[in-house]
Amino acid sequence: MIPLVHDLSDETVVVFGGGPVGARKARRFAREARTVVVSPAFADRDFGDAELVRAAPAPDEVPDWVERFAPALVVAATDDDAVNDAVVAAARDAGALVNRADRSGERDAGSVVVPATVEDGDVSVAITTGGASPALSKHLRERVEAELAGAGEMAALTAELRAELKASDRSPAERRDAIRAVVRDPSVWKALRTGDANPRREVARVIRDTQRGDS
């Protein structure tokens, strides 16, 4: 499986299953897309902003539900193997991606795994074990969270810096070296994370140092 980033803006995700797993999936996708959860009952969990539809479609009725919502992604998260099988088949027939939450390991074509994610501004890190060990994904996510602090602000800062340097008379190699030096400088990171210093002042210092190194 190859990790990809998929834009679900203006798309629909349908989750079959209202248990704890379905609730977790719904919370994740409802932040990015219209999300509909179809289930005969719903666990006492947070489903985010997902739409909850109380229904218990039989396996032969699942294709009609998929066709009704025309989703980009379908999640099979029920406790009924036959229904989950029907969800996967209907999603594939409809050309939608499918996430089967009750199985790990080998996957069919068109299947996706929902990774554990850490986000800071526009910076995202996704961790997946291919569905083999969600516990490990969660543990690694917790370790990465501390390292990612300030990354969103660093991305915004260096985007501005790239534009400024591009408008200068610096060569592409000089611009590249300056950006790399800023990204790797501990003082810039500390300024972004703590606010004890002015990040822009630290950036100016780093760039001056790179100029001295070039001369």
From TrEMBL:
Pathway: Porphyrin-containing compound metabolism; siroheme biosynthesis; sirohydrochlorin from precorrin-2: step 1/1. Signal peptide: none annotated. Residues 120-146 form the Siroheme synthase central domain. GO terms for molecular function: precorrin-2 dehydrogenase activity. It catalyses: precorrin-2 + NAD(+) = sirohydrochlorin + NADH + 2 H(+). Its EC number is 1.3.1.76. InterPro entries: Met8-like, NAD(P)-bd_dom_sf, Sirohaem_synthase_central, Sirohaem_synthase_N. This is precorrin-2 dehydrogenase.
